[in-house]
Each structure stands twice: as structure tokens, then as C-alpha cells.
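Encode chain A's predicted structure.
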Amino acid sequence: MKLKKKEFLNESKKDKSELLEDLKSNNWSIRANAIYYLKKFNDKSVDDEIFKKLKDPDENVWLLAVKTLKNKNDPRLVDSLIDSLLHDKREEVRWHSAYFLGEMGDIRAVDALIRSLKDECKEVRLNSTKALRKIGSDKPVDALVDLLEDEESSVRKEAIYSLNAISPEKNIDGLVNSLDDADRRVRSSAAILIGKTGSKNAIDKLIEKLKDNEPIVRVSVVYALSNIDSDKSLPALINALDDPHWEVRSDAAKALAKIGSSDAVVPLLDALKDENPYVRHCATKALEKFDIFKK
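Encoded structure for chain A:
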């Protein structure tokens, strides 16, 4: 739907009245061209005519009108975008509406964006989730938790990102199920957010996911365990020093330094023999926190 400049007619010398007349043309490119040149006028009557194009049947004209009014900070635009988000039959108009509402960051859009999380179009749900994250209200938390069951993995991932931004300390039991998601990015993001909540409810599941096939998931689990105060975290992180992937092992060493238990000293000494130099470096730094070399 993005317009290319070559599609605009070379009629920049037309005066305001001619351009306003062009807004009535049956040709969408002429209407779009008129908006393109009318945007330079700081005139409420012009803005009023461009505002009418928010009902234009052509998506290109609608999009150009939105961008123009947004740049002019027209106070009417938010309400119009909310209406388009909820009622327009065109998917591209709805998901663009969600996108622009997120860019504008107006709290009035929150309720409409929550409703659109159930839109049949994936792109609408995706952009609504992103928009809610940008606005920052904690009102959509429950709706975002429900979105963790969405059929599209990209939507599920964005829901976790938004929950992370909006309410990272909230104990969200629904995230535990996301640790078994088919998409590794969802599993990884879920583990990180669980770690930020500090919740012990998922500790057993997190330890189980240290056997996940994907290193990115295991790295995220190590992060989560390092942030959860549980007796089970320490032995799980010690075991992670033997993980097949070097990044898991190095992060485990960092996590053990953070926890600070002396039970980690001997396993960290063994990690000084690791084949990967960065793992050895992390183990050394961890042991320095125990003053082991001074002793």
C-alpha cells in the first residue's frame, strides 16, 4: 500500500483551490497527489478536506491522509483511527490503524487495541500487541496473557515481549505453558520473562528446559534461574557448566557468580579446564568473587 513518488502527477504548480478540487476525482492517484501537495498548507479548511479522505475507499489515499494529519498533529486523528481499527473491513487499514495508534501513544486507544487482539487478521493482532507495548498501560495484561495461546507464533512472541515491557514483575502462570511452545523464540522469551518475575512456580519446568534442543532456550533458562531464589537453582546451574554449548556454560558461570554460593567453587575450578576460552574467562571472573585466588 506504500505509495511511490513516481505515481504522483507532476502538478505541484496547482493552487490550493485546484488541488482541493482534485480531491473529488474518481482517480485515486489524482486524489493522493492532491493530498501530497496540500500537506504544505497550514490551513484548517485544507485539513478538514484531507480529514474527509479518512473515509476514502482507496487504501493508498487513506494512508497518505493519515500520515499527513499525523504530521500536522490533528487532534481528530486518534478517534478516526480507533474507528477504522474496529470497523473497517479492510485488513490493511485495520493493521495500519493499530500501528499508527501505537506511534501516537494515546491512552484513549487502549480499549480498542485490546478488542483488536481478537481480530481475525494476524497482522492486526500483531500490530495491536506492539501498540499496547508502546503505550505502556497495564490494563491489557490479562488480554495479552490470553494471546499466549494464539495460533500464530509471531503473535505469541510479541505478546511475551509486551508483557515483559508492561508488567515484568507480574507472576504470570500462563507463561509456564509457553515454555513448551513449538517456536524456540517463544520458549526463550517466556523463560526470560519468568526470570524477571522471580516466580518459583515454574522452577521445575525451567530446569526441565535445560535439556531443550535449542541453545537459545537453554541460555534464557540459565538467565531465569539466576534470578529465581530457589534451592533448586544452584544445582541446576552447576549442571549447566557441562552443557554442550559454550554460551550456556559461560552464562552458567556468570549466574553462579551472581548467586555467590561456595558450593559452586569446585565446579567452577573444573570449568577452568573448559575447551572454550570465554568459558574459562567467565569461570575465572566468577572465582575472583570468591577470593579463591587470594586463598
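The mean pLDDT is 91.
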